Amino acid sequence: GFMTRYERKLFDELKSPHLKYWVPFVWFGNLASKARKEGRIRDSVDLQTLMNEMNKYRSWCSLLFGYDWVGIPLVYTQVVTLAVYTFFFACLIGRQFLDTDQGYQGHDLDIYIPIFTLLQFFFYAGWLKV
Q: Domain of 112?
């Protein structure tokens, strides 16, 4: 509903190996210039502001296209997975209680389920899966 049938036909006939998100921006720029020449846009500053906003929006679309085009390397996900599990294993070892048979002063037997370590692991593992 954003294009006329004629515009849709022109858009579909355009051959491009990439996405054609930029075509409506070119059409918009041409129509804005034509509107300035015809006096529909009265001031060049207004035209400049309009074109700046359009260029800002086009650069956001280009940035989004770049993120879509370049995938995340598989090695990155493997490294992050290894880091999450290694961190969890280190936390399980490092957060153990001290052996009371050794006679450490001020340290009583502290048997507990490491709730915060488990929550931390679930958070990181969940974040990893996302």
A: 72-127
Helix residue ranges, H only, the chain: 5-13, 23-38, 44-69, 74-94, 115-129
Arithmetic mean of pLDDT, 59-74: 79
| Rounded distance between C-alpha atoms, residue 109 and residue 97, angstroms | 7
**pLDDT of 93 strictly over 90:** no
60 and 85 part of one domain: no
Q: Is 60 exceeded by the pLDDT of residue 12?
A: yes
- The phi and psi torsions of 47 (rounded to 5 degrees) equal -65, -40
Residues in contact with 92: Cβ distance below 8 Å, sequence separation at least 6, in sequence order: 114, 117
10 with 44, same domain: the answer is yes
CA distance to 16, 22, 39, 68, per residue, from 13 (Å): 9, 15, 32, 24
